[in-house]
Amino acid sequence: MVVEDKGLWLQIGAFSSRESADIFRDQAARDLSWNNEPLDVSPRDGLYRVRLGPYRNREEAEAIAAKVRGTLGIAPKMTNR
User: Fold this and answer.
1) For the chain, percent helix, then strand, then coil, each to nearest 5?
2) What is the distance between the alpha carbons of residues 62 and 57, in angstroms, rounded to a whole number?
3) Beta strands in 1-81 (DSSP E)
4) What's the distance, CA 7 to chain centroid?
5) Cross-sheet strand order for the sheet of 47-55
6) Stated pTM of the model
7) CA–CA separation, 49 vs 14, rounded Å?
8) Predicted confidence (pLDDT) per residue in 18-75, tens digit
9) How far is CA 60 from CA 18, 19, 46, 50, in A?
10) From the DSSP assignment, how many helices (H) and strands (E) are in the chain?
11) Given CA atoms 45, 48, 51, 56 in this order, what sign does their dihedral have?
12) Which of 2, 46, 58, 71 has its CA 20 to 30 A from that of 81?
């Protein structure tokens, strides 16, 4: 599978309501104070996904994913949308 570099995202949560996604996004933004990128809430397929990115390449995304795991204790899912 070929993944376009410009579209790599790290999903850190998925919620059935926009309100829950917004609450989680706001808390994660506070906890990830080292993060310089905004956290995105993206609706798709009935869920609201909280994501970081996009990242230029897989190496950059993996480095950020490792920092997220260390800070939040969750493993982000890498996606290309």
Assistant:
1) 40, 30, 30
2) 9
3) 8-15, 39-44, 47-55, 77-79
4) 12
5) 39-44, 47-55, 8-15, 77-79
6) 0.86
7) 4
8) 999 999 999 999 999 999 888 999 999 999 999 999 998 999 999 999 999 999 999 9
9) 28, 30, 29, 18
10) 2, 4
11) positive
12) 71
